[in-house]
Amino acid sequence: MTSISGRHFLQIPGPTNVPERVLRAIDSATIDHRGPEFQKLGQEVLSGLKHVFKTKAPVVIFPASGTGAWEAALVNTLSPDDRVLMVETGHFATLWHSMAKKLGLAPEFISGDWRHGVDLVTVEARLAADKSHSIKAVCVVHNETSTGVTSRIGEVRKAIDRAHHPALYMVDTISSLASIDYRHDEWGVDVTVAGSQKGLMLPPGLSFNAVSDKALAAAKTSKLPKSYWSWEEMLGPNKNGFFPYTPATNLLYGLRASLNMLLEEGLDNVFKRHDRHAEATRRAVRAWGLEILCLNPAEYSSSLTAVLIPQGHSEADFRKVVLDNFNMSLGQGLGKVAGKVFRIGHLGDFNDLMLIGTLAGVEMGLELAGVPHKKRGVAMAMEYLTEGASKSKPAVKLNAA
Amino acid sequence: MTSISGRHFLQIPGPTNVPERVLRAIDSATIDHRGPEFQKLGQEVLSGLKHVFKTKAPVVIFPASGTGAWEAALVNTLSPDDRVLMVETGHFATLWHSMAKKLGLAPEFISGDWRHGVDLVTVEARLAADKSHSIKAVCVVHNETSTGVTSRIGEVRKAIDRAHHPALYMVDTISSLASIDYRHDEWGVDVTVAGSQKGLMLPPGLSFNAVSDKALAAAKTSKLPKSYWSWEEMLGPNKNGFFPYTPATNLLYGLRASLNMLLEEGLDNVFKRHDRHAEATRRAVRAWGLEILCLNPAEYSSSLTAVLIPQGHSEADFRKVVLDNFNMSLGQGLGKVAGKVFRIGHLGDFNDLMLIGTLAGVEMGLELAGVPHKKRGVAMAMEYLTEGASKSKPAVKLNAA
Amino acid sequence: MTSISGRHFLQIPGPTNVPERVLRAIDSATIDHRGPEFQKLGQEVLSGLKHVFKTKAPVVIFPASGTGAWEAALVNTLSPDDRVLMVETGHFATLWHSMAKKLGLAPEFISGDWRHGVDLVTVEARLAADKSHSIKAVCVVHNETSTGVTSRIGEVRKAIDRAHHPALYMVDTISSLASIDYRHDEWGVDVTVAGSQKGLMLPPGLSFNAVSDKALAAAKTSKLPKSYWSWEEMLGPNKNGFFPYTPATNLLYGLRASLNMLLEEGLDNVFKRHDRHAEATRRAVRAWGLEILCLNPAEYSSSLTAVLIPQGHSEADFRKVVLDNFNMSLGQGLGKVAGKVFRIGHLGDFNDLMLIGTLAGVEMGLELAGVPHKKRGVAMAMEYLTEGASKSKPAVKLNAA
Amino acid sequence: MTSISGRHFLQIPGPTNVPERVLRAIDSATIDHRGPEFQKLGQEVLSGLKHVFKTKAPVVIFPASGTGAWEAALVNTLSPDDRVLMVETGHFATLWHSMAKKLGLAPEFISGDWRHGVDLVTVEARLAADKSHSIKAVCVVHNETSTGVTSRIGEVRKAIDRAHHPALYMVDTISSLASIDYRHDEWGVDVTVAGSQKGLMLPPGLSFNAVSDKALAAAKTSKLPKSYWSWEEMLGPNKNGFFPYTPATNLLYGLRASLNMLLEEGLDNVFKRHDRHAEATRRAVRAWGLEILCLNPAEYSSSLTAVLIPQGHSEADFRKVVLDNFNMSLGQGLGKVAGKVFRIGHLGDFNDLMLIGTLAGVEMGLELAGVPHKKRGVAMAMEYLTEGASKSKPAVKLNAA
């Protein structure tokens, strides 16, 4: 790792800054994954996850990146050439769509401008038009990590219902879970996809599927080949806290710690904190005179903010200046917005002063990189944070060793 | 974790005892997986792995358990209904065979007695009989973790060659790599499958495919659906030290540390150490009057020893006595030998006194559990270790902070 | 640190093997030693220590080695040229005596053969003869780390009482506290001296004085210069959990963890465990045909066993053979027994299999070093441990992250 | 520790934010302090420290807080009733003076206003007046942690020389070493006192004396009682990398890591970084309209800035607001300036964005606490940092595991 003085500011929209408590938990001796001590760990994390997904359904844990959980959602429920309705909200939606094609599905991709979330009207219309119910699943991304735009998952559910369409509903919450309010059960989601390295504050290496009864039923007839990702093989041993193949034990230690931290802070407080930091960031962006990629305030992301770099300037150069001078990593533009935006992650284990440090790094970086801007961004963020500070005062909680 | 006094003896045949140095490396802040510091890490581990696999071919790293690397080997190279020749050496060979069926392949399974390695004559005969070359791959397990029996991988290669058969050759080295000599290039293996949690001394969560040119060529025409496991998507970014999706960064920190440790000890010394501990273990087993599952001395495993429990006695009860009284985990019998054997892992980060502690736990456990045995096992192992000690004296190496 | 494979066996009689849980606790961000979070920590450890010393009196914590706590005991209570009765039980008693001289006291040293504990009759006679009560303190070592001999602290108290002598009673428990039963209040000790790196299972760097009312009263008139070691300056801030100068915060994190571990195991179980391992060790020593330094079975130490090396053999060479071949550190002979004994530490975070590994390292080392011995030491220890195993079965306790 | 989200900002002027790399080094198994591996560690840190003190003289390491190293400096060199010239630069100079009295010395205390460093003229005059050379030592504090005022150590040396006075020259560098340029040899200092928890970026628990030949000579005739602190006992074993009593092994692991980090960054770069952050902080303070305690710009501290709280406002309340709302610890006013100042630590493992976070916490805290101020402090600091950024660009260095 670098010997640059001080803490690195990891302000990409994930992986996020892993708290010491989680890192220390991971730094424990690996145990027998078939023994009684592991069983207790397994039961604890499998149960604790339900709280975070707001579900009573099983949550499956894969030793894999989030990309693996995308694949698991598809291969467990679908069959070759199945039609899937997907929505182009950004780079990750596009990658999921590509994956669906590679896996032999027939995805339909509702195009988008990467500045809005899922268009409810189009989805409803498309489903309503599918009289034969040949569309087997609707797949959307809750929070587009490439754009900082959220989609209204509960509203999409209503659109599907209005179309009286039986398609499975699958949602990627990789960069929203445990940062932005999400309700697997209430919103009638069939498969929720998530990963460890964002709001769950873990290193990458775990991913998740929350699975509804309807999805489980679909799995029984699904014909895409599956083995590693098979829910069926997972759910049996999971009932007793075990796994069908060697689990990523040490990351599960970290998961136990992070679930405890979320419980201690309270999910609602976690969401409020993310909302507040996101709003402070947007005020800074506006003060700089820069443009937020997300056009609809109702769809602003509380996890990250993507900012358009003024034309004629290079976001890569800008980010390099920030990294070299201020020891901070920002997110690059991806896919269609490559070269056009940089992204500020403000999710995970984060607080007001880390945010101000982050925004200061952006503001000073803009200056050093010669990107035209006004200077009052940090000041505006501070003003906003100060106003809200007393209302959002964190409760101190203590942790025995 | 338990508060039982002293170190737990994790003597299942993997996950193995993770060295402090590896745990501490993992306990580092997660970094930007698209930044220059990660790039150096990526290049270092991708290159260092080749040394361990004894190959010049690329080694692909998956954020997944070893089971995932099995799947990757199959889905990258094969097409639905392809015939695959597999050999029933034990439980893990059986699981791999089941996976092949689940993935839509048509595996043929040469039956075995779980006490021998791959039978060379049968393999050669079977391939010679396949005049049409409809068999696309031969899949074997180098070291059967369920039985403590190795197969002679170089000899299998020769058998394939004698049959003039073009099938791909795939080898599972999950519990042999970095413990028992293995030579991807010299032995003409096309896909080598490995995992992090055995000889590499890491927690579970990483797995590997070493991939020959012939395997890469096969990947171009393979029709099994693939995305997460796709070599093609991996190899592009890997050239620059990057990955197509978020890698398990912190486990890669651990991998860097473990590769350095293997380099410092020297692979040949590592193999000798494992051979020596395995021989000491077998001498103990014989002294106890118990039977080693592996029948052919040329196929003894240096990673683990599976021991038959005398009839009328429960291996589960025995292992529970050992765990409850001596804070040691032993491996259970799996599959066809469930209830019939227990397994002693003696691989990974291990030394003479840990081995004696391990064997003492077995010997005292046999006594407490009322399993008939003679008592001179530990004494015989000590005698053997003492004889060989001066020859195998470890070199002290120092590690700067 | 060394890259020798496997865990080092640290079997000197302290520092002891620090449990992972303690190391991880120490590996936490340092906090403001004047803030509320520290206060809670301070209160917790200051209170928890009383349980371990079996006292209601205050226990003072110094950021210092045990040697510092010796000095603190003397400079807080005594004045230049004060007479102090000390007993030559071994090297550490001798060092404490040297220190007393250096500090300007007039210690009287009852000579000893380093193979027995404090002679009660001599102490009583010496005190009875001191009609003028010019002796201000009696200082003894509970467990002589250099010899493996304990003194009967409660009996010494009675001897002092029989002599109707008002001297302060000071006891060094550096290598006994939290390993061998010790009762500050019940035994009427005025100052108990202890350190972190033995039974408390911490790295070195903390030391302790438990201080009776009588000792506190003596401190008011003591004239030896003192500042860093001053109890008076400590006790004020300690009342609120704080310290008069910067405390060794991170070691206090470790102390909190170790106090919790001792509480979870139960002090009585901790003592029984040490007794059992000590007895097993002595049976091994006798089986080897070697001689235990301690001559009186009533004074055997449960923390360590000092063993005489047969004449004509070098204990230094023997220990080097053990270190080089078996990655184990044993204690050297110190002071008058330098070159004559080696010491086996069996205290702290320890268990049966670690003990057998330790004894095997000694037995195999004797063989390699050409030291005459019989071979049944390990076997005898195993026999003893097996007999007692079911009675001493450790309870599994679980620890949340 | 707290479960408040995000990193705590530990901006007291020490202990400082301990870097992960140091914490991880400390989190290693304790080793035999009499063995060959320890010897290498001992030699490495004892030698490496000389570079940081800029000396060829021995540097003694005590397992103790900085307060202990004060005591060591005095008791090793002086005799009861010796006259010592000390200068009241602030709270810590006052504590050192109190200690000298407690130890039986006869210190003379040149009074000061706590807003200036050592007055050269007064020191010279006082020494020149001491014709009999009854003053045995001049003791000053390089950087007053309570006031943020430095003294010009090289100039004090010249004043002593101009007075042709043979007194020993002792300097406390507890909060300057490895943060502000310091030159033990060049400045003719006889005893330099330092601690681990400031610029050396370690947890508290180690302290240091760099000792000139003249100081060593004085030690031979010094009559203050000494044992734990005795240089003589230290220097013998130190020659071989060992210590006369159990050293704080794990903190020495951390010291090795921190010495490597300082070497990698380069001491001159370390000093420039501290200067820059101090100047940025002062610009912020001035912009807020608040007053810096230090009155002489030539004596500004680069480690910390003490700021006067406007009359009628409570610095304690202010700091509580900052801690409760922003998870940041600031230094309180101590001694004569208790209630009048708060202190901002900007030393140790620190960088630009951490500084901006820190200053933002102060600025927002002032607002929330109702302390009158102007709002442009953070903005001014950012402007200054931006100007200097390209010149002070940190070099990336990489650290293998």
Give a description of the structure.
4 copies of one chain form a homotetramer. Chain A is α/β, with parallel strands linked by helices and 401 residues long. Helix content of chain A is 42%, strand content 15%. The first copy, chain A, is built from 13 helices and 14 strands. A 7-stranded mixed β-sheet of chain A has the order 2-10-9-8-5-3-4, with helices on both faces. In chain A, β3, α4 and β4 form a beta-alpha-beta unit. Chain A starts with 8 loop residues before the first strand and ends in a 12-residue tail after the last helix. The C terminus of chain A is likely disordered. The interface between A and B is large, with 62 and 62 residues.
Helical proportion of chain A?
A: 40-55%
For the terminal residues of chain A, how far apart are their CA atoms?
27 Å
Largest Cβ-defined interface = A-B, 62 and 62 residues
Oligomeric organization of the protein chains: homotetramer
- Strand order, sheet with most strands of chain A: 2-10-9-8-5-3-4
Helix-strand topology string of chain A: EHHEHEHEHEEEHEEEHHHHEEHEEHH
Task: List low-confidence stretches of chain A.
Answer: 394-401
User: Whole-number average pLDDT of chain A?
Assistant: 96
Biggest pleated-sheet summary of chain A:
7 strands, mixed
**Strand count of chain A:** 14
Shape of chain A: globular
Q: What structural category arises from helix and sheet content of chain A?
A: alpha/beta
Strand % of chain A is 5-15%
Radius of gyration of chain A: 21 Å
The total count of helices of chain A amounts to 13
